[in-house]
Amino acid sequence: MKHRTRLHRCIAVSRLGVGMFFGLNSPSLAELIVNGTELDFVAVELQHAQVSSGDSTAILRAVQATDPDVTPLVRLPDHSVYWIQQSLDAGFTGMIVPLVESAEQTESLVRAAYFPPLGDRSSAGSIRAVMYALEPDYYKVGLIVEALVHVHGATGDSNYLDAAVTLYNDTITRATDLWTNTFSHKTSWAATTLHAVTGEVDYLNHACRFADYIVGLQQPDAAFTYPELWPSYPPEHWEGVANICPQFALWITRTLQTLEGVGMNG
Fold first, then answer.
1. Which of these, 166, 230, 255, 263, could form a disulfide with 211 (CB 3.0-4.6 Å)?
2. Domain spanning 6-131: which CATH class is it, in words?
3. DSSP secondary structure letter of residue 134
């Protein structure tokens, strides 16, 4: 079961999401509220309400059974790894963490939420979360790699470049559908940037593979579709096309410019 919900689509097209916080220990009431409202998200309140981990899972199940397209979030009571692990294992799509006041706290929270190599989260085959075949966040890898390379350029510290190369190469090695998954479009950006910095031809070859796939998504009206987000084309909300198409065109253009720069024909 793939878990792409309304809030995912809102974020993808930079559209405001509408939802509510739920702080009552009543799965039945959660069902009543969610039924027919088409909320983009429901956030279960653990910080300011008497809701336990088990209770929150019952509310989560009620919300998902009533409207599978609503995005279930949870506001944690504190920063403990226990609450992060319990909430993600239960199957919540996202977490709202209160009282984050430093970069160190942010880094610790991110590492607790991600599996290796991005974090330290442990896994278990018996948890609810394994029911959801979550789409790989390849675009996040592209953004992180891009940021690390820019920090390397600004500081001259090779550790940042080493981290970018390690993350990128590990993703390429582990991914099974990288070249046919539209969520990898920002990884094309990372590939051209790594080629520019390192001169390694493999990165350019990767960028070409990404660009070839994106070209195949172009529609008769010259815009691009996004099959993982839009069940049909054109999508219901046209602002998504205006958001996505310039990005796809940019990654293709960057690849062509890189090919021209090394004297190859694209």
1. 255
2. alpha beta
3. P
